[in-house]
Amino acid sequence: MKKAKSLFSLIMAASLLSALSPANVYAREKIEQVSLSFSLDNSTWTELDVECGDSVYEVRSVDLFPEGTKNSSHPYAVVVLDAQEDYYFTSIKGKYFSLEGEGATFQEAARSNSNSTMTLAVRLKDLGEGELLSPENLTWTDTGIATWDGVLGAGSYSVRIRRDGQAVTSSSAPTTEATVYNFSTKITKPGNYTFQVKANGRFRKTKSSDWETSPVLAVDEAKLAYIMEHAATDGGVPGQWMEDSIGAWYQYTTGEIPKSQWREIDGAWYYFNELGYRLTDQWVDRYYVGSSGKMLVNTTTPDGYFVDENGAWAPK
């Protein structure tokens, strides 16, 4: 979810989890080399496919980190491999691995489970080459809020507003991770307003989409007075927290309420149940949300388990 500060910490966490499997105790054959081929699924822009060059080992799991690490903005992946029961891995050095596709280069590796499991970190220098589709269904609300549909593979969106075909401001286009932007404070005169939005890729080599232009929002004096009366003080606030006797939820300015999913809000991750309420003081898969609903990171949970800088349970 967040940038990882250390590949080594992820390698060790994954290898320790792997060590929970029983070890083979009889004679086995060496795996002389590990060959892997990497490719991004461009239909989703999020799933990394990893193919093995030999049938004596197989991929157990692939975790993709598109934002890179503290020391590098290149995306990377952590791959866990399992050897067939009659085989074992013999090395963790870079020359032991043959890597192809997406500019894959070796970073770190660790063995566990009597060398039957390999955990490998791979930097992916060319991941995400291609161009994003343009956003669709651009719409205005009656209070000057812009909305659009999300684009697969987008890490953020650039937005700008125009009045009668001319830029309203000379400043650079702001960006947002949400699919909504409040332009109400920029609508200060009567005129025909449009907004434009383009999708920016989450990967370094992904080309941004073309700018897409919204329908016209016609603003006369009466409409201007209405918008100014309802204008937000912050042109970029995507929504607000709400609460009732049952719990708290988050509602975007579009009216959307996240349900049965994680959402990052103001730099912290929260999980919302099927009714849209924020969960607190419990585990959600391998992640723990505290009393405020925020996912805990790089700390020990109240029941004594360590979660790493990505929030995942990582036994020491």
Overall description:
The protein has 316 residues and is mainly beta. The chain contains 2 helices and 28 strands. A hairpin with a 5-residue loop joins strand 27 (299-300) and strand 28. The two termini are 20 Å apart.
Which short descriptors sum up this protein?
single chain; four-stranded antiparallel beta sheet; six-stranded antiparallel beta sheet; about 325 residues
How does the SSE layout of this entry go?
Blueprint (H helix, E strand, L loop, with lengths): L6 H12 L10 E3 L2 E7 L7 E5 L4 E9 L10 E8 L3 E3 L7 E4 L3 E9 L4 E8 L5 E2 L7 E2 L4 E3 L6 E10 L2 E2 L7 E2 L3 E3 L8 E11 L4 E2 L4 E2 L3 E3 L1 H10 L8 E5 L4 E5 L8 E5 L2 E5 L9 E3 L2 E3 L9 E2 L5 E2 L9
Parallel strand pairs: 1-6, 2-7, 10-18
Antiparallel strand pairs: 2-3, 4-5, 5-9, 8-9, 11-12, 12-16, 13-14, 13-15, 13-17, 17-19, 17-20, 21-22, 23-24, 25-26, 27-28
Summarize the structure.
The chain is mainly beta and 316 residues long.
